[in-house]
Amino acid sequence: MKKNTLGNPENGQALVVIVFVILGMVVLAALAIDGGNALVQRRTVQNGADNCALAGIRSIVIDEDLTETELLAEINLIAETNGIPDSDGIPGNSINANVEAHYTDPEGNYLSACDQVGACSSIPSDTKGIECSTKKSVPTYFAPIIGWNSTEASASGIAVNHAPDNPNYHFPVETAFWSWGYIDLNGQDPHINGVFANGVGCPGPECETAEDFPINNSGQDPFIDPVVCTSLDCFECTGQNCQTALDNSEVVPPKATMPFTIDFATYAPGGEKDADYWPAGKYTYVDNGTNNVHLVPCEDGVYVVTGNAHLKVNECGKSTYKNITIIALGWIRLDADAWLEPFDASLDGLVLASWSESTPENPNLFDSTTFAIDFNQNPELKGLLYAPNGNVGDTGQDLHLDGAVVAESITVTGQNIIVTFNPTYLPPPPPPITIELIR
Question: pTM, whole model, 2 decimals?
Answer without folding.
Answer: 0.65
